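cron nightly-structures :: item 1 of 1
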Amino acid sequence: MSFKELAECIIEGDEGQAVAHVKTMIDQGQNPLEIISEGLMAGMNVVGERFKEGDMFVPEVLMSARAMNASIELVKPLINDEDMPNAGTVVIGTVKGDLHDIGKNLVSMMMESAGFKVINIGIDVSTEKFVEAVKENNAKVVAMSAMLTTTMIYMKKVIEALDAEGLRDKVKVMIGGAPVTQKFATDIGADLYTVDASSAATKAKQMLA
């Protein structure tokens, strides 16, 4: 049972096969961290690239992400929390007044696949909830999504709230969503704007490095 075959299952979004492969690997005594990095993450990296190139679409990416998450759940109990690949903790949510979920969940999955610990606080999220989640989880990144021009202005309020709580210099703010632009990100003082889910994880890593 090879890492390459496991990566292929992830790319194909075959959850049943991926889980079966991981179980076999665990039984064979394979290093759990290698199962994650050489098999699962390697597969998701390809998915991310193909999504960016337009060779894969949202439903396929979601299937791959589900296969990845189900597989990781099997490996997690074998790894100390401190040994889990962790590029940093990200708090992610859709801002207050906005109920759009798919883009945010996609970014969330991509970031998890890239080794971030992701705290997904849902949709219609208030400034207080963003601030609270950052404090509780000692987050390095706050990621905000908005799909409406009427709700994206709320992102500025969250940044102001982080500032008021003395957290702004401790956390990077990244934003995205259909109406959001680089100019808007610059105007409200966000650290990073990404145009799609696949580049979000890569750019977040670069930003933290």
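cron nightly-structures :: done
Residues 110 and 135 are 23 Å apart (CA to CA).
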